[in-house]
Amino acid sequence: RMMGTWPGWGWLLLPACQALVAPQEVSGHAGQALTLNCWYAPGYQGYNKYWCRGASRDSCSKVVETAGREVPQQRGRVSITDNHVFCLVLLTLQELSEEDAGSYWCGVERVGRDIMTPVTIRVLPGERWHFV
């Protein structure tokens, strides 16, 4: 009989008790799509989630936001999806380019100070030369 968590699924349960959990850094190849995950605490399902870009939380500018709904929102090459079941916000960047590299913040809008966590995006050279 197994005790403790189910193997492989423990990470799904872990972030739920914290405010916001996202990888500190993600990288993708130029020209490809990049997806970022950001978990939030239960109870914040109906709140507006967003991704903003900038070095500091106070001066970053919103790239895309959910308006508190589960319907995916798109702005140019960027889209955001809020999964209320898993308390998970997904950011997808299509056709990654060098200009996309930098500091981003996953945020939950609330009265007072928003909950935010930083994520750095690194862009690696495209894969197009690998089949030579």
UniProtKB/TrEMBL annotation:
Gene3D superfamilies, from UniProt? Immunoglobulins
Keyword annotations from UniProtKB, A to Z: Disulfide bond, Membrane, Signal, Transmembrane
Question: What are the subcellular locations of this protein?
Answer: Membrane
What gene name does this entry carry?
Cd300ld3
- GO cellular component labels: plasma membrane
Q: Where is the Ig-like domain?
A: 15-122
Q: Which Pfam families match?
A: V-set (PF07686)
User: Which interval of the chain is the signal sequence?
Assistant: 1-19
**What is the protein name for this chain?**
CLM3 protein
Determine if Amino-acid biosynthesis is one of this entry's keywords: no
**InterPro entries assigned:** CD300_family_receptors, Ig-like_dom, Ig-like_dom_sf, Ig-like_fold, Ig_sub, Ig_V-set
Q: Which organism is it from?
A: Asarcornis scutulata
Name the domain of life.
Eukaryota
SMART domains named among the record's database cross-references? IG
Query: From the UniProt record, which GO molecular function terms apply?
Result: transmembrane signaling receptor activity
